[in-house]
Automatic annotation (TrEMBL):
<comment type="similarity">
    <text>Belongs to the NKAIN family.</text>
</comment>
<feature type="transmembrane region" description="Helical">
    <location>
        <begin position="57"/>
        <end position="81"/>
    </location>
</feature>
<dbReference type="GO" id="GO:0002028">
    <property type="term" value="P:regulation of sodium ion transport"/>
</dbReference>
<keyword id="KW-0812">Transmembrane</keyword>
<feature type="transmembrane region" description="Helical">
    <location>
        <begin position="29"/>
        <end position="50"/>
    </location>
</feature>
<dbReference type="Pfam" id="PF05640">
    <property type="entry name" value="NKAIN"/>
</dbReference>
<protein>
    <recommendedName>
        <fullName>Sodium/potassium-transporting ATPase subunit beta-1-interacting protein</fullName>
    </recommendedName>
</protein>
<keyword id="KW-1133">Transmembrane helix</keyword>
<feature type="transmembrane region" description="Helical">
    <location>
        <begin position="147"/>
        <end position="166"/>
    </location>
</feature>
<dbReference type="GO" id="GO:0005886">
    <property type="term" value="C:plasma membrane"/>
</dbReference>
<dbReference type="InterPro" id="IPR008516">
    <property type="entry name" value="Na/K-Atpase_Interacting"/>
</dbReference>
<keyword id="KW-1003">Cell membrane</keyword>
<keyword id="KW-0472">Membrane</keyword>
Length: 201
């Protein structure tokens, strides 16, 4: 970025990195993998834009459709649409019972632990209750996914525009001289015998 001419992080990258951090804090393994792939594809798309590689940009454009579909699924998951349950272990691949980091650390949330001693089989365990949340965590996750969808749609439109510009440049280059059998700056040379006659006269 700046004088070094290195690419600056795009809004899509920054948003994906921010989401990756909170998914890591909540041990949400499926979103972690999806975010990682998204970051890689965004870097590939930026590289394609800088290095004039339309194929890389097309890959990014196709990925944005997958990314939008994934985020729609996340929205449906947290809003419990179509039989999905936000309390299921689907996003953790059923290897842990962790939930979204925002479920205990959202705005205004107060986390309280109550000892479970005296209950058989639950000694040395604690019950965690969360109260006072200004906004339920599932709505925070929905807003995150909605923002990702918005950025992806903008990125898709921009990718299509860049590919069309690159295609027009390639077509114009071919039209100017790429397939022209005659050089652009062709000099009509007279035969040597004609030049000799002119100088003689």
């Amino acid at each position: 970025c700046g004088c070094c001419n290195s690419p600056c992080p795009s809004p899509s990258q920054l948003a994906a990195l921010e989401r990756q951090v909170f998914d890591f804090l909540g041990y949400q393994w499926a979103p972690i993998l999806a975010n990682f792939l998204h970051i890689i594809i965004v870097i590939l798309g930026l590289f394609g834009t800088i290095q004039y590689r339309p194929r890389y940009i097309v890959v990014y454009a196709i990925w944005t459709a997958v990314w939008v579909t994934w985020n729609i699924f996340i929205i449906c998951f947290y809003l419990e649409v179509g039989g999905l349950s936000k309390d299921s272990e689907l996003l953790t691949f059923n290897i842990s019972r962790h939930q979204s980091w925002w479920s205990e650390n959202g705005p205004g949330c107060v986390r309280k632990e109550a000892s479970m001693s005296g209950i058989k089989g639950l000694d040395n365990h604690s019950y965690i209750s969360v109260i006072g949340c200004a906004l339920e965590y599932r709505y925070i996750e929905v807003m995150h996914s909605s923002f990702q969808i918005l950025i992806a749609l903008v990125g898709f439109v921009y990718a299509c525009y860049v590919v069309s510009v690159f295609t027009e440049e390639e077509d114009s280059f071919d039209f100017i001289g790429g397939f022209d059998p005659f050089p652009l700056y062709h000099v009509n040379e007279k035969p040597t015998n004609l030049l000799f006659k002119q100088t003689y006269l």
